Amino acid sequence: MGKVIIHNQVTVNGSFEAPTPEEWLELDADSGDAGLEQLILADALLLGRKTYEGLAAVWPHLGEDPTMGHYAERINGMPKYVASRTLAGPLDWNAALIEGEVVQAVPALKEKHTGNLIVSGCGELAHTLSQQGLVDEFWFWVNPHLWPSGPRILDGVGPIRLQLVAATPYRSGVVWLRYRPAGF
Q1: Which long-range contacts (CB under 8 A, 24 or more apart) does 104-111 make?
Q2: Whole-angstrom distance, CA of residue 67 vs CA of residue 84
Q3: What is the pLDDT of residues 103-140, one digit of tens each?
Q4: Is the Cβ–Cβ distance between 176 and 43 less than 8 Å?
Q5: pLDDT for 69-93, tens place per residue?
Q6: Structure pTM?
Q7: Of residues 128, 125, 154, the one with CA closest to residue 139
Q8: What CA–CA distance (Å, rounded) separates 182 from 124?
Q9: Angle 69-77/29-41 helices, nearest 10 degrees?
Q10: Distance, first Cα to last Cα, the chain
């Protein structure tokens, strides 16, 4: 059975969608290689509509980029499941709409897959999955920056007690934190 994993880059103070993430996002080789390994091991991406539209506008064009090409090859090729109340299929970028209600569809997707189902983004889909107890792990890539503005990761979700599974520091100051809901 697959696991649903919320996977996000954040600043130390929890900003994840600042207008200019390139100012705080550390793209070092060590943590970048680890992130790529996680994508290679994942079966699929679970995306909300806004995240899907944003990523689909960028990633298909990064295949020839010297620094992002190896990520783009994996991300572009893997299946994507999109939660949306407004999009109609068929979708581009190797994506399919999640049929029916997310709360019923995600357990079926977990049954269908043996690997990780990565949730990229921390919007409505991540909130719903967290509040409904459908997230198996939370992976936060904490970047060594404080950011003064922007939404904070999973604002309004909880209370959910998390248990630390692992913490991996990198030379750049990035720390990968893996949590699972306590009692899981």
Answers
A1: 105/81, 106/4, 106/46, 106/134, 107/134, 109/2, 109/44, 109/46, 109/81, 110/1, 110/2, 110/3, 110/4, 111/1, 111/2
A2: 31
A3: 999 999 999 999 999 998 888 999 999 999 999 999 99
A4: no
A5: 878 888 899 999 999 999 987 999 9
A6: 0.90
A7: 154
A8: 22
A9: 20
A10: 15
